């Protein structure tokens, strides 16, 4: 696998990790904190297109790699728990494409993210602090949330109405937008998921083995 294909697959896995975390939060009211931290950290990493610099090793995206694998295989697609993460991931890719057409929104997004990065020190550099999560959720609402296309999150209504859960979901969606942006920058296109599925799966399984060994 060439380095660019590896990087592109890691970026796509980040999108699916965000989708899987949103699904966990919506259905259970909780999500893997390590997987969540990796994604939220990525939101305030700027000026690099290197997934390893943004996410670290493949091990940090294990949840996303598995979610992507399930979405690309016939066996995985037949599992009910795979349906929503796939829909969310495709929605995030679409939203990023819409966002990328608005220079004004991109400018606002960058400005607000830089402010959040500066505020991290006030939360003892804890990216999972509720204040940081709230910041990211607010940024999502004020930028991506103004686009015509809306991504509907479904799950346990009681969980979805629990304080803090909607904010975590929006923060995850913002991280998913970041992954989708990176994937596109590296040459990823939505049609690749349909017409180059076998190639992606081959690359993906190499990364899954790498994640298991690290």
Overall pLDDT metric: 93
Summarize the biggest pleated sheet.
Answer: none
Terminal Cα span: 18 Å
Net shape: globular
Pattern of helices and strands: HHHHHHHHHHHH
- Identify the CATH homologous superfamily: HflD-like
As residue ranges, the low-confidence spans are none
Helix coverage percent: over 70%
CATH class designation? Mainly Alpha
Radius of gyration, rounded? 16 Å
Number of strands: 0
- Fraction in beta strands: under 5%
CATH topological fold name: YcfC-like
CATH architecture: Orthogonal Bundle
Class by alpha and beta content = mainly alpha
Q: Tally the helices.
A: 12
Q: How many domains in all?
A: 1
Keywords: Cell membrane, Cytoplasm, Membrane
Family: Belongs to the HflD family.
Organism: Agitococcus lubricus
InterPro entries: HflD, HflD-like_sf
């Amino acid at each position: 696998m060439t380095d660019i294909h590896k990087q592109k697959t890691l970026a796509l896995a980040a999108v699916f990790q965000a989708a899987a975390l949103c699904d966990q939060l919506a259905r259970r009211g909780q999500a893997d904190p390590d997987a969540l931290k990796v994604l939220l950290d990525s939101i305030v990493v700027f000026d690099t297109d290197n997934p390893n610099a943004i996410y670290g090793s493949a091990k940090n995206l294990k949840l996303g790699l598995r979610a992507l694998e399930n979405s690309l295989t016939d066996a995985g697609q037949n599992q009910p728990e795979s349906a929503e993460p796939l829909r969310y991931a495709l929605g995030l890719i679409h939203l990023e494409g819409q966002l990328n057409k608005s220079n004004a929104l991109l400018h606002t997004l960058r400005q607000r993210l830089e402010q959040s990065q500066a505020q991290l020190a006030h939360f003892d550099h804890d990216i999972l602090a509720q204040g940081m999560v709230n910041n990211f959720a607010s940024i999502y609402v004020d930028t991506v949330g103004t686009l015509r296309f809306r991504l509907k999150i479904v799950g346990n209504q009681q969980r979805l109405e629990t304080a803090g859960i909607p904010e975590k979901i929006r923060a995850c969606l913002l991280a998913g937008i970041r992954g989708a942006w990176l994937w596109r920058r590296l040459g990823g296109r939505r049609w690749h998921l349909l017409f180059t599925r076998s190639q992606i799966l081959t690359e993906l399984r190499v990364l899954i083995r790498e994640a298991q060994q690290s």
